[in-house]
From TrEMBL:
Entries under Pfam families matching the protein: C1-set
GO cellular component: extracellular region; MHC class I protein complex
Domain Ig-like: 72-158
Species this protein is from: Acanthochromis polyacanthus
Listed transmembrane segments: none
Protein name as annotated: Beta-2-microglobulin
InterPro entries reported in the protein's UniProt record: Ig-like_dom, Ig-like_dom_sf, Ig-like_fold, Ig/MHC_CS, Ig_C1-set, MHC/Immunoglobulin
């Protein structure tokens, strides 16, 4: 910690008497996962009440971000009406979810179908995200096609495509 205190002090020109270090991996966006939040505060002139206020503020931030979990809405469908033996496109649209950490797999009898394409992750004003994955396929009678969605730390859920034939 003294080496870190020296580096921060050298970079800023300040004499940091104390450093506060926090690790909020689940409170940060998925792209920042396992990133530590480093906050250097010149505590020379801060009272214990002020230090406590900093900590409580960060804890409130952590709770606020972590509480925004919204499960995804999943729709599995095909571009054209399902017809056995006829080339088609299997589509899985996942929407209205938060946080953005999500995995989508298109499956045939429990095995991932290769060469699937996925849109870029997009979001609305309320920070709810949406994503679409699709793959060319030719439906076969007796074969089960599903969209497997894993959202954050939750268990994967399979959504079945129904041919409606």
């Amino acid at each position: 910690m003294d080496g870190l205190r020296h580096i921060v002090g050298g970079l800023t020109g300040c004499d940091y008497m104390d450093l506060l270090y926090f690790h909020f991996s689940s409170a940060l966006p998925a792209t920042w996962e396992h990133t530590s939040v480093f906050i250097a505060i010149n505590t020379q002139n801060l009272t214990n009440k002020m230090k406590l206020l900093w900590f409580v503020s960060l804890a409130a931030f952590y709770c606020a971000v972590d509480s925004k979990y919204t499960p995804p809405k999943v729709q599995v469908y095909s571009r054209d009406p399902g017809e056995f033996g006829k080339a088609n496109t299997l589509i899985c649209h996942v929407s209205n979810f938060h946080p953005p950490a999500i995995s989508i797999q298109l499956m045939k009898d429990g095995v991932e179908i290769p060469d699937a394409l996925q849109t870029d992750l997009a979001f609305k004003k309320n920070w709810h995200f949406h994503l679409t994955r699709n793959v060319a396929f030719t439906p076969q009678d007796g074969t089960k096609y599903t969209c497997k969605v894993t959202h954050g730390e939750k268990a994967a859920v399979d959504y079945i495509w129904e041919s409606k034939m």
